[in-house]
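Ligand-bound model needed. zinc ion.
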Amino acid sequence: MSILIKNGHIVTASADYIANIFVEGETISAIGKDLPMSADKTIDASGKLVFPGGVDAHVHLDLPVMGTFSSDNFETGTRAALFGGTTTIIDFANQTRGETLHAAVDEWHKKAAGNALCDYGFHVSVTDFNPTTKAEIKQLIDDGITSFKTFMAYKGTLMIDDGQMMGIMDEVKKHGGIVTVHATNGDMIEALVKKHQAEGKLTPLYHYRSQPEITEIEACGRFIDMANYTGVTCLIVHMTSAGALNKVREASKRNQRVFVETCPQYLLLDASVYEKENFEGAKWVMSPPIREQKDREALWAGLNQGMIQTVGTDHCPFFMEQKRKGEDDFTKIPNGAPGIEHRIELLYSEGVRKGRISLNKFVEVISTNPAKIFGMYPRKGTLAIGADADIVIFDPEEQHTISAKTHHHNCDYSAYEGREVTGKCKTVLMRGKVAVENDEMKIEKGYGQFLKRGISSLVI
Ligand code: URP
Ligand code: ZN
Ligand code: ZN
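Prediction:
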């Protein structure tokens, strides 16, 4: 099968021009002004942006949480991702304490294989670092699982202590991988949760008040110092606050490179969502919580200045019925919200159209940088000869409104209900196949492949 995409406005992280792209099989075989080839299918992309498929390096599909599961599985979640122009995801295989890292990876392979529509990789979340798990790290890196997630919060379940953190960092550094972190101070959060419970403050608002900015600032600073000491390549996921970003800024003065991810919800929403009545605030109960206007401004600036390199979604949806488990106690609300489908359109509409970031920066943060940081570049993350033909053809003018009535998430609410956006993913190619066209899905579950990832290639 060959496809010729004609006269599109091609945008990569570093280029911007009108040309044609010729796709043969699963990859791009030519890019040029006047390509002489004829193709099985021709797509007229005049007036459209053409950019590499998105890479969302932070999603939780079919994740067991508090006796339930996140409501998108690998089929529904990757379908929604493709509708929104994301062609590669990285999920987290979470180690169960007392079990091996390989057991977690095997479990996640079972969830994904034969179900995913887009390509996928796994990070491994290390929740129990011991001689057995230490010995597994090299093998996992050789198997293409090169990133190791750690938690400084979720005390009693996922959280590790600083000794374990140092051990993971040493071992991952030895074998060339990257350590990522959920950086908030679990002890401080636990104390604040207990205080609020004792005072009978149990609404979703107190989820927010139990995780103030200082809990993130402290943990980010500690993580950065440990990464500096061990020399490991590191990334802080879902950064939410100006204060935490200042810790990264300080580290840059000693020439330490700390990669940072933020998410659309932290760029676009503010903590007033937690003031909503009738338990509605539960829709945005996620960790860390959404913060203030000053934080949003700092995060946009951080993106634009290159201090934040990537935008993931932390997609972790639950139906309201699942959220209601915490109706009488915010600590029982499953943490997370839907978003995998809207990352690219939101970033374009709110970032590029509103002059906060350039078109090239947009492509960099939604695709190129996560592909580089997580060892998939240049197969993923760019439009180049030999790269996978993961391509988004995007109408930069089309206006539409986000709603749970029309989204493809398996979730009965939207975190962005009623928000108007400009720009829409019209056609999406997934490894050379038309996946999305005319608002319809054209590929079947099982098309998505596991990605054996390499070592981070983003140079300072
Ligand atoms: O609330 C969230 N973010 N849920 C997903 C797990 C995590 O901490 O990333
Ligand atoms: Zn997290
Ligand atoms: Zn997450």
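Residues 185 and 218 are 7 Å apart (CA to CA).
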